[in-house]
Structure formats: C-alpha cells, structure tokens
Amino acid sequence: MQTVEETLRNYIAENILFSDRGYPYADETSFLENGVVDSMSVMDLVLFAEKQFSVPIGDHEIVPANFDSIRNLANFIRAKLGQPA
Amino acid sequence: MARGLVQDFLESSADRLPDKEALVCAGRRLSYAQIERQANQLANALRARGLQRGERVVLYLPNSVELVVGIFAALKAGGVFVVVNPGVGPEKLAYIVDNCQASGLISWSARAEAIAALASQSPHVKTAVLVQSDKARALPGGVLDWESLLAGESDARPAPVNIDLDLACLIYTSGSTGDPKGVMSDHSNVVFAVNSITTYLENREDDVVMDVLPLSFDYGLYQLLMVFRFGGRLVLEQGFAYPAEIMKRVAEERVTGFPGVPTLYSMLLSMDLSHFDLSSLRYLTNTAAALPTDHILRLRDEFPNARLFSMYGLTETKRTLYLPPEELQRRPDSVGIAIPGTEVWLEAEDGRRLPMGETGELVVRGRHVMRGYWGDAQASAARFRAGPIPGERLCYTGDLFRMDAEGFLYFVARRDDIIKSRGEKVSPREVENVLYRLPGVQAAAVIGVPHPVLGQAIKAFVVQNGAGLTEADVIRHCRTQLEDFMVPRVVEFCEALPMTTSGKIKKTGLR
C-alpha cells in the first residue's frame, strides 16, 4: 500500500506539476516559497485530500502548518485519521 | 511630480514620509526610506554593470520585498521592469527573456538552475542576480548574490535618465492562443491609470491595502504602485491559498482596502467569517472576471462596512470601467462607467457607434491606453487603432457590452466566446449566472461544443460542494430560468475548473 507521502507526491506530480519525472522536491520543501503549488492548487489539494483519505477538512485547518509541504500535509492527514505521525 | 515618472511614487513618499511603514511582507516591516535606499543600491549596481536606458529587467520572483525593490530599481536605473510569475515554467521564462531581450535577470535560489542556464545562453543578459535564502549553497557561475551586490553600492538616488514617454514596464498576458504578448506601458500610462483609480477609490494616506495577488498580474502590481503613490501601507502576501490566514492578517493589520477576484470571494463566502474582526475594511474591489450577482449581494451582507467596487479592465488599458458602489443595489450586474478622465463607447462590426440597448464592442479612449505589444506590430495594429485626433490610439477591447439608458455598461461576452446555438447568440455568462443561483453550485463554466444539428450545443462544467446534484437537477433548474436555446444540453461535473494564474476560469482547456 502507498504511504500518505507517496500518494500526495504522485497526485501533485501528475495533476499540478504535470511532471513526467515524479515529484522533484524534498518532502520538507515549502510549496508556496518554492512555487511548487500556487494558491489555486492548494484548493485542489484540499479537495483531493478530503476525497482520497475520507477526511473532512475545515476552513480553519487550511493553513500553511498543515498544507505547505508533503511532510506537513501527510502528518496532518495521519492525525485526522488517528494514525501515528 | 513634474517629471511624471513611476519611480516618483516611491521617491516622493520617501522624501515626505521617510519613516512611515510602507511594506509589510513575510514578517518584515520596511519604511519608505529603507525601500528607497535598497532600490537606489540595486539601481546603481545595474547601471554599473551596463544597463542602458530602456533595457528590460526581468523579475522572476514571488511576492517579496526584493520584488518591490527590484521594480523601483529597474525604473531608477532607466530600465523597463518585467515581472514574471514565479509559477511560470522554464520554457515560458526562456521565451519571455528572449522575447524582451532582457538585460537584467533577478530571481531567487529556488530557480537557480533556470537562471544559470539563461545567464550563460542569452546574449543580452548583462546582470543575473539571485536572492538566496540558503547562504550555504554555492552560487552558479556568472550569477551574483543579491545581498553582496547591494552591500557594495551607494544608496544615493541616481539621477533620472527617462522622460514619461519612455516605457516603464512590459506585462506579459497569455492570450487564448499563441505565445504570451508583452503589453508595453509608458510612464505616463501608468501614472495616469494610478491617479484615475486612486481618485474613484478615494484612497488616503492612512489606507492599508492587502495584496494577495501576484505582482506579475497588473491588478496585483497596481496595488503596490497606488499605495506608494498616496503614501499608504501595503501588506503583501504570497497568495490566497489560505483564506482563513488572510482574514486573520486583515484583522491584525487593520486593513482598509482589499482587492479580490471571484475565486477568492467565492472561497470567503463559503467560510464562517464571524470570528474575524473585519471592521477596518473600507472597500473591497473585484475585477478579472465578473462576480455572480448572488455573490455580490452576499458580500454586502458579510462586509457591511465596506464599499464594494465591481470593475472591469484588460491589461491593454489597465482599468477600464468601475461601478460606483452606490449603484450596486440598482444594477448589481453592471461593471459601471469609464474610469475618471477617460471615455468609452460601443461599436458595431461596421464601425458604427451604437445607441443604448444594443450590444457591441467596447472601445476605450484615454491616456491609459497602452503603447502596444512588444515586438508584435500585427497584434498591436488589431488592438490599438487610430483615434479621432491624429496620433492618438484607441483600444478595441474585443469584449462585447450592452449599455443601459443611464450609460451603465454590462459585460456580455468576449467576442470570440459567444456561442451560436440553433442560430441564436448565447452569452456563456448569462447561463453561468443562472447556474450560480442553484444551491450547491460552487463554480461553473459554460462553453459551446460542436453539434450536428444545433451548430453548437451548450455544455456546462459544474463544481459542486457535496450537494449531490445530478445532471437532471441542473438542467431542470436552467429550464425554469432560461430561454430553451440557452439551456445546457450536457452537464459535466468536475472537481475543479482550470484557472489562470490571475484567478480567471481558463476555458481554453475545456472541451
């Protein structure tokens, strides 16, 4: 089974970066600072995460601490699912 | 401001209000004098490295202090600034650098590879600079470090070399077809547009404007220019990915002016805003695309203290129309009248000026009509045509509008967007407005698709927020509100609609 990180990397590589060489950044790389994901794409990412992992995400949770890197987002999703980080 | 140059905005404010906090960005707070000194240093550095009057400086940076400094430094050095969205890929960046024959190239470490390649390959680049967040990383050959470059230069204001007929900036717009085109603005175009817009917004020195839009987009860029013109404060953010954070910042910084786009307002309206203190907001503006009428009315309820300006413009004239907020109640779907000091009218395809009630192309006359497209005489000739007085330019917008009896304008469609179905002209906007009134519809886009009988059939793309709508629900709703030739034949539900970097729904990819 794919890890949460792998699922997110693949989604971003295929649907946001349109990359044919996978996700080319480190898991800690800040999305916004490095232009990985722009404002619009964060909303796509929210919708994807809600659907893929069946977790409802509130407005107040859409903040950089939860969404600004693969690592942050994976930890956030695991916390939502009640899994260890 | 006898010279009428764009950098005068910064220089006069730095002379008049040196210690005033001008820019708040990424945890930093800078005064006018601090920005002025850094811009002088960079301008002197660019000059020392051979930048000539009128040469282009490409700023490939996210919204940041360095981008603000870079814009004014390019002008002070006598150059022309070109802000490129940091989300643009290496091919498009290379196209722009080559197209404008950039002499200066300024970017940040996340784009080191692309910058090093361009610095070594492009014959015109004299100075390439990187803003580095991580000093430990080695700088590519031929590329300078921002901080060390500035440290070695005088912060004395360089003597101006330009007059107001010289170009100030190129703004690249991605048309629906073909390569991006650089809209050329001279200093007088920019100064005029800034003065006109700040007049109707009634901007004051104590205004604090929040800018979440990229400075590569004219709407985002002009927030900076306007604020520096009237000596206010700009709160510059990296984007609006995190709407709750943005609202928190509005409250913390006591923001008075908030420019938005429909997507952003649609996100805000889906949130509970009651726990933010938004009482400082004096005005909201919208442009880039029209707000659905329903959203306009709801925004007025959510932000009762703020005046809402619905506006329309295109990069080729900056801003074109605005609706005075007191008219919003009577004509919520109008984008108003010509901005102060300019005029507009509607023309038929045969060049006849149209009376009220008829639909025609919007034609714009005023000093905000830009100078044309960089290196593209053919496209310039189609868009910018001779006016009634020899030597003047009018802008033919390619957008169809209707005018009411009191002279207020209503957007109908892009001329090439109009769908002809069953021989009838259908405005996608009109159908989209109806779709937005259906509860559960978060976003909608309507296009025409080839149809053997109808010519074109109406197809709707709908993003819903978990309401469980079916195609039949959507079509049934449209039937109750639209003439039957306007009712979509096909409804496709999708997760999200493709967006341009400026927040408009990008229809070119929809099929």
What features would you describe in this structure?
By secondary structure, chain A is mainly α. Chain A has a single domain (4-81), classed as ACP-like (Non-ribosomal Peptide Synthetase Peptidyl Carrier Protein, Chain A), CATH 1.10.1200. Chain A contains four helices and no strands. In chain A, helix 1 (4-15) crosses helix 4. Chain A is globular, with a radius of gyration of 12 Å. In chain B, strand 8 (167-173) and strand 9 form a beta hairpin. Chain B has 14 helices and 27 strands. Chain B has 511 residues and is of the alpha/beta class. In chain B, helix 7 crosses helix 8 (218-230). Chain B starts with 7 loop residues before the first helix and ends in an 18-residue tail after the last strand. In chain B, the strands form seven sheets. A five-stranded parallel beta sheet of chain B has the order 4-3-5-6-7, with helices on both faces. Helix content of chain B is 29%, strand content 27%. The chains are: A mainly alpha (85), B alpha/beta (511). The interface between A and B is medium-sized, with 22 and 25 residues.
